[in-house]
Amino acid sequence: MVKTAKAIAVTVQEMVTKSTTNPDELGILANQLTNDYGQLAQVAKPSVLTAENEEIGSHIKRQVQQLGHGCAALVTKAGALQCSPSDAYTKKELIESARKVSEKVSHVLAALQAGNRGTQACITAASAISGVIADLDTTIMFATAGTLNWENSETFADHR
């Protein structure tokens, strides 16, 4: 879902660039934006349902919906700019809509991050445990090789 949100942000930036260099390509980018948002909305459904609590799920849903409204407004502005590519006011409106969409993408990402705190805690714990296991494996390897043997005649293999 994060990848799709970032793809939306990239497409929005391309739309801003094309608004001044090549407005004819805005239709293709608007289509890409629409497809990316559709994917984001589909992926957001499970995130809303599996959120830690109902409030977080509702927040994710609201942020995704607001992003959708922003994307729709941006697509409308892109269409208007294609109709009159030299209109400076329409370009300004498109750039403002793009700024709002970029802002809404960051809100969606923040909502997702808030909803995934428990998941992130599990990932962090698993990483820490993996580090401990790796340290134990290394210690066992040195002990088996005999480099950690005591001064007396006992070996690691005797205790293993």
From TrEMBL:
Classify the main location.
cytoplasm
The record places domain Vinculin-binding site-containing at: 1-117
Q: Which Pfam families match?
A: VBS
Task: Enumerate the subcellular locations listed in this protein's record, separating them with semicolons.
Answer: Cytoplasm
Q: Which GO terms describe its molecular function?
A: actin filament binding; integrin binding
**One GO cellular component term noted in the UniProt record for this chain:** focal adhesion
Q: Which InterPro entries match?
A: Alpha-catenin/vinculin-like_sf, Vinculin-bd_dom
* Protein origin, superkingdom: Eukaryota
Single GO biological process annotation from the record: cell-cell adhesion
Task: Return the SUPFAM superfamilies for the record.
Answer: alpha-catenin/vinculin-like
Q: Does the keyword Cytoplasm apply?
A: yes
Q: Which UniProt keywords apply?
A: Cytoplasm
**PANTHER family membership:** TALIN, TALIN-1
Protein name per Swiss-Prot or TrEMBL? TLN1 protein
Q: Which organism encodes this protein? A: Nyctibius grandis
Please name the gene that encodes this protein.
Tln1_1
